[in-house]
Amino acid sequence: MPKVLIADSLSPRAVEILRARGIDVDVKTGMKPAELRAVIGGYDGLAVRSATKVTKEVLQVADRLKVVGRAGIGVDNIDVASATGRGVVVMNTPFGNSITTAEHAVALLLALARQLPAADRSTQAGKWEKSRFVGVEVTGKTLGIVGCGNIGSIVADRALGLRMKVVAYDPFLSEERAKTLGVEKVELDALLARADFITLHTPLTDATRNVIDARAIAKMKKGVRIVNCARGGLIVEADLLAALESGQVAGAAIDVFPVEPTTESALFGRDDIIATPHLGASTTEAQENVALQIAEQMADFLLTGAVVNAINMPSVSAEEAPALRPYMALALALGSFAGQLTASAITAVEITYEGDAAAINTKPVTAAMLTGLLAPSLETVNMVSAPVIARERNIQVTEVTGAQTPDYHTLVRIAVTTERRTKTVAGSLFGGDKPRLVAVEGMALEAELAGSMLFVRNRDKPGFIGALGGILGDGGVNIATFHLGRTAPGADAICLVQVDQPIGEAMLAAVRALPHVVEARTMTF
To answer: Which of 289, 361, 362, 374 is the most exposed place for a label (fewest CB within 10 A)?
Structure first.
């Protein structure tokens, strides 16, 4: 039974979902880092929100851990690189709190336009400073949205409903999508120059860190108002403070900070600042949604292998998982076969999908293929870490989808290029779900890859099979299956033998010493 630790406060219904699916659940919130490290080794899954820090040190002792689920969008509190290196899937729930966060941004925009928090404090202090709090209308004003993804597009829709003009900067926003949303796609400098209000809805990356700094602010309209419900590191707070003091920025509404919780800031105490304690996702509906979503996603992954909303692995839906499972088994076996045949550095891998295989979701199958390929030379590698390791080793990975193959209804082929040569291996599914090797370097050979096997490349000469069988028999090794392939009579040939007992180094040396043997090696599947 898989076991999941919930380390931050989630809806009790998340626990109910996991237990109903047959997963053992422990709820331990508020743990210190040392306490988390002490217990994490006993769990297959870890569910968190933003409070728990899933650090490299935590992951190093999480020997059983397969998945970390973040109930929310941001994964800043998770060391994704370390998780990937250890083969741990990191999931989030990018859609569960989109509406809530967008509504908070719009609420802050309106509060900023009418100075509502400062007016509220003044009025409740017994003052009546009506002339002091003269606001601005948003109707007809230009809103600049930096990052027009899930949340940004919802903000755009709400802003258009308020009769605002909307311009958006997002490198991944297509012209067609912009037209559908009713926004104008512009470059960042144009947005800064035109916007009366600017709202940020982009993740924190190396490209977006400190995107709003003194240089950017200098390009803005005088009296611009800024809303940030995304990530604290997007704004240089010292530069924002200077712009507020000079009047270049009329006001700012900040829901996120570089370090949280934030109890002290030079921005606090000013009437032109609205500050909220990271409330973007804090509605009853959003908290319930993300908790239920992450519980379902983690359960699907641990029980069926379905991968949804993963940060570091291709997605596999619950519907796809059963159909992909035999393909992934085939890919893992073919990759392992090719990896065990490879003795020099790999420079490129080309994976071809033909027939029915051309129509499947190939990304997870390719990840399984790379896992099998790299496993013989690495201690730990899986579908999460394999693509990253391939990139780190400068291995060029290419996917090709082909037409129908004349001999098989479905075919997967891997071509591995090393510093010396290119080797190809192909496989198919028999009976719909039984992986089979069907070709090695162009030589037809149908075999199941299982258990202990002996691979021999030789010249096709009379007496070879008998001599090989004699060595195995004399050594007390029983043959389970025996498969042959050749290019032409008397030419290059291969022999793949499944055996019931392991073949030791002395016996392998005897096989290599046989006449006409070019190469011999043991394999394990």
So the answer is: 361
